[in-house]
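This section describes the prediction task in plain terms. A model, or a person checking by hand, is given the sequence of a single protein chain and must write out its three-dimensional structure as a string of tokens. No templates, partner chains or ligands are provided. The sample shown here is typical of the held-out split.
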Amino acid sequence: MISRILQSKIAEYFNYFPVITLTGPRQSGKTTLLKHLFKDFPYLSLETPDVLARAEEDPKLFLEKYKNGVILDEVQRVPALFSYIQTIVDEFPDRKFVLSGSQNFLMLEKVSQTLAGRTAVLKLLPFSLEELKNTTFEPQNVNTFILKGGYPRLYDKKIPPSVYYPNYLQTYIERDVRSIQNIENLSLFTKFLQLCAGRVGQLLNMSALATEMGISVNTAKNWLSVLEAGFVVYTLQPYHKNYNKRLVKTPKLYFYDTGLASFLLNIKTEEMLETHYAKGSLFENMVINEYVKHAYNQGEIPHLYFWRDNHGVEIDLLVAQDDQLLPIEIKAGTTYHKDFFKNLTTFNQFSQDGGTRNTVIYAGDTTEQVSKGKLVSWRENIK
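The expected answer:
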């Protein structure tokens, strides 16, 4: 098993809280990690029909059987369990529960209602580059990683992306989408998902997306919420505090995994990716994902933004670090060009930072300090 960075944080929090809650995309490795960390705990999946039936029939009796700890997977399928878990841990502080699920909003809603202060909430995303580094699975070039993505089964089972992603998509739509919202036309929803993939790294125009789909704006918003709940997409918010008011305030859209986005765009080979219109956007998505994963792996909430003025000058990523902003431009080129730092120079006029933290992450292999800032290879660990 490839070691997961998050496991040390889970082990630490297990000493402080009676309940550990782990969320993340379907098949991101949650079950494997929890079984590895809690070998003595029985594992029960609420997606198993007989287990689901027993939990729904008598939640209290169902939980009473596991006085020495238990792992409950997809626990959001039986909402009544949360209240009983609250009662048990309040009465018996030494009782331990490990909860996991792949539906972010549903899990966190129940947790915040009943288990606030009693649980640590952590998120596990697919493999990061840092986790794959120095293993036999370390990607040799960036296009390979963009196309393959980070889902563990692609690595430990050596499943080709062309085989894995159609099945992943079908499982996600049949299990998660149906359980979150009653969407009658699943083929139309799949088309919506494909259109979202085509908008990776773009400003999110819900009206244009709805018009192209032939659906209402409210329906488009609801469907986007479904994708966010299932850890398929997320939005990056614009940063506009204390700066020029003539700034874009619309979020940008990204996928949690570039392998899935590439599949939805029908990009099958590295050669196709090299000439595809979305290559730069997918590279940008991959880099931003690494910052998202790094934060979650530390048990933290990502504080990430982008900046764009009304003239189209944009900084791809702003990372809030120690009351400062790290401005990052992301370039899919493999060789350095002085124009890489052009937008950063403009941004420095607003931020009054002086450019001391200017960073460009690019698709090349060399990391070095250049006259206008730091040039960083995509291979470097995100910090």
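For orientation: The CA atoms of residues 173 and 186 lie 8 Å apart.
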